[in-house]
Amino acid sequence: VVTELIHGKTTTYYPFGPITDTGPYDFIIHGDSDFIDMPFTRLNGELQITKLDGSTVTDTELNAFVNLLPQSLFRQVECKVGDHLVSDLSTPTYAYKAFIETHLGFTEEQKKIMFEALEYYCKDSIDCEEIYVLNNEQAKSFKKKHEQLKANNGKLPFSMILHVDFLNCHKPLIPHVDLKLKFIRNEDSFSLLGSTKSVKIKINDLSLDVRKITFDPQLADAIESKLSSTPAVYPITSGKIKSHIITTGRQTERVSQIFRGKLPRQIIIGFVDSGGYDGNVSKNPFKFGNFGINSFQGYLNGEPITPLPFKPKFSTNSYTREYRWFLDNLGCYESKNPLDVTYEEFKANSCFFVYDMSPELCNLYHQHGNQNGIFDFDVGFETALTKNITAIIYGSFHEVVMIDKSRNVTIVE
Fold first, then answer.
1. From start to end of 52-120, where are the E strands?
2. Which end of the chain has a smaller Cβ tally under 10 Å, C or N?
3. Residues 137 and 276 both lie in one domain
4. A GO molecular function for this record (predicted)?
5. Would you give the distance in Å from CA 159 to the centre of its chain?
């Protein structure tokens, strides 16, 4: 029987200032005598997709929206504990962080239950094909999304988890610590699909739900007393994204020193059309295509990570070694949880090269000492690229946030 926890409640906060379509949106959760159960923080709201003049979408406006629509609205989410920034702002890629962590972090059943209401579609043909013609049989997903824009005047309510690393720590945040969140909008075109942009996204409502817990006073006093000698420690897995453009005409590329110094525990590398990355409405930003890759090798301190480079032949459906490596390095074998990316989808829209840097491929389950060095990779293509593509490189790092009795915040990397 748990007797230390007396009471729990959810408190709703609203952004400071008016809710505009372009943002930003600032929330301040002032610390009080309660602890905060951070993983249950949720952003709720309603968005509305309308014609440019504000009226309801019709079949004339051939637009739909990307997968995981509400998360795609934001290019950056800043998180401060007190006045100390604890989120990575090196690249404005929150939408990619949210997509990769959702797409590669949950089973098919979990996605259907937890994320379909957030416009996540597990088997989404529009993420494989760029088709914007309503009478085309292959465009079923596009048509489904387009129909949603015509229904209910294009209003789409949402309630979403936040891909903010500190908030996903399962240790309750101690009392009297302020949390500050700032949500910075993406351009509408990043979240929309179509040959041209003929609709816009309106933000009608936003609020933040925060779960608070009242501890037994004796336990709360004991925790506060211990802070005099030992700070509160919050271990987090910090996901950071880097990007690299590979230009038209290239057939091979060395991406040097993408990580230097402290190395990630896990590295995930995928490639998207640079047009989608830059917000071209006719390109899907979350379609991680294979682009005819026929060679891939990662290097640690100049030494190849695998004895032989990967040599997929996507044109002949010969890429079993690459797919197996993808599954193993995402922990599918150890966890026995099936990843919701099939062999065919790996080729079509989920082509990732993954490196679990732990000795036993534990997929971040165990803590290991920090590893320092340099990570590079080579990639080759069957034919020279006919368009720019962008490499999205996701690295997972172990970090610790510490808060002392005076509520001073320190990050130990």
1. 63-65, 74-81, 84-85
2. N
3. no
4. ribonucleoside-diphosphate reductase activity, thioredoxin disulfide as acceptor
5. 16
Q: Read off the pLDDT of residues 183-242 as tens digits, 9 standing for 90 and up.
A: 999 999 999 988 889 999 999 999 999 999 999 999 999 999 999 999 999 999 999 999
Rounded to an integer, what distance in angstroms lies between the CA atom of residue 382 and that of residue 311? 10
* Residues pairing with 352 in the sheet: 270
* pLDDT tens-digit series, residues 251-306: 999 999 999 999 999 999 999 999 999 999 999 999 999 999 999 999 999 999 99
What is the phi/psi pair of residue 133, to 5°?
-125, 120
- Same-domain status, 212 and 275: no
Query: Which SS3 state, helix, strand or coil, does residue 225 take?
Result: helix
CA–CA separation, 64 vs 147, rounded Å?
A: 9
When divided into structural domains, the chain yields a total of 2
Alpha-carbon span 242 to 257, nearest angstrom: 11
Domain around 160:
5-231
240 touches 254 (CB < 8 A):
no
Question: Has residue 300 been placed in a domain?
Answer: yes
Q: Per-residue pLDDT for 378 more than 50?
A: yes
Global pTM? 0.93
Residue 409 lies in a domain: no
Tens-digit pLDDT profile for residues 55-71: 998 888 888 888 899 99
3-state SS, residue 315: helix
State both tokens at 363: 């997929």
Q: Are 178 and 321 in the same domain?
A: no
Which among 194, 201, 185 has a CA at the least distance from the CA of 64? Answer: 194
HSE of 264 in the Cβ direction (CA atoms, 13 Å)?
Answer: 23
- On whether residue 322 sits in a domain, the answer given is yes
Structure tokens of 308? 């032989």
Short-list 181, 199, 158, CA closest to 72? 158
Q: How far is CA 131 from CA 18, 25, 192, in A?
A: 37, 34, 13
Q: What is the pLDDT of residues 145-171, one digit of tens each?
A: 778 777 788 999 999 999 999 999 999
**Which tokens in the block code for residue 87?**
């989120």
Domain boundary (231, 253, 279) is at 231
Is there a single domain that holds both residue 345 and residue 270? yes
Same domain, 213 and 248: no
